[in-house]
Every structure is written in structure tokens, then in C-alpha cells.
């Protein structure tokens, strides 16, 4: 059994879904894990991780539009000290989640044909985000 741990850093351009599949795959390739699991953990409360379709850009636009409608700015939130997009960002992160676990076989993540890993930035302005990556296996 072998394991490795790293913190991957991503600069976002502000609100949106930022695909990080290639960066995670590149890191996994250096981890020398052939069979096992990869766990990804977002170290932020206003950004999150998700797996979704990466072929049709309309999917990402629809997901973002749905989140904005479900958790609008100006919703009368008590917490607003960091701006009107902060509390909605926390709720969106809670809804979409902060961690993923992905099986690994033959040194590759077992993502489906149309699946990609996304770092969801829920704040308007750009941020530097950190994702802890842990691989465990043989």
C-alpha cells in the first residue's frame, strides 16, 4: 500500500465552474498509484468541488444559473460583512460539497466519458483556491 498527499493551487477568474480534471490527472500520474482511490478536499467555505458533464458548456451555464436562482444575492442574510455574494457563496458550497472520492484503475481516475472535476468558485472576484489531493493504493 502506498499513499501520497499534495495541495493543488488554482487561481480562479471569479464566479464559475473551473475544470481541474487535467491538473488532478497530472498529479495522479506522478503519484505512482495504479489501483486505489483519490480524495480531493477543498479548503474553502465559499468554493466547492463537483463532478459533472464536461462536454456541453450549456450544462455549466445551467448549473450556475440554477444555483444563482436557488441562492440569490440580497436574500436578507444576516452575514454580509464580506459583501453581498459571501453568504450565498457559503450556502452554494454547502449544497455542492467540499470533497470528492474517485476510484483509480490502471493509474487513471475512473471518471465516466463525459465527466469532469470542477472547482466551483462562488464569489464574484478572483481567488486563489487550495485543493488537498490524497491518493491511496497499490
From TrEMBL:
UniProt cross-references to PROSITE patterns, sorted A to Z: UPF0047
Superkingdom as given in the UniProt entry: Bacteria
Pfam short name (any one): YjbQ
Signal peptide: none
PANTHER family, per database record: UNCHARACTERIZED PROTEIN YJBQ-RELATED, UPF0047 PROTEIN C4A8.02C
Family: Belongs to the UPF0047 family.
Stated name of the protein: YjbQ family protein
Amino acid at each position: 500500500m502506498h499513499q501520497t498527499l499534495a495541495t493543488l493551487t488554482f487561481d480562479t477568474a471569479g464566479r464559475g465552474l473551473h475544470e481541474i480534471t487535467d491538473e488532478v490527472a497530472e498529479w495522479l500520474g506522478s503519484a505512482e498509484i495504479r489501483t486505489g482511490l483519490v480524495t480531493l478536499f477543498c479548503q474553502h467555505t465559499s468554493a466547492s468541488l463537483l463532478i459533472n458533464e464536461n462536454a456541453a458548456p450549456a450544462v455549466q451555464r445551467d448549473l450556475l444559473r440554477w444555483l444563482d436562482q436557488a441562492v440569490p444575492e440580497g436574500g436578507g442574510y444576516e452575514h454580509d460583512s464580506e459583501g453581498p455574494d459571501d453568504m450565498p457563496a457559503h450556502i452554494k458550497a454547502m449544497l455542492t460539497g467540499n470533497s470528492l472520492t474517485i476510484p483509480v484503475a490502471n493509474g487513471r481516475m475512473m471518471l465516466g466519458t463525459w465527466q469532469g472535476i470542477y472547482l466551483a468558485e462562488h464569489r464574484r472576484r478572483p481567488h486563489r483556491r487550495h485543493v488537498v489531493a490524497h491518493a491511496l493504493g497499490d
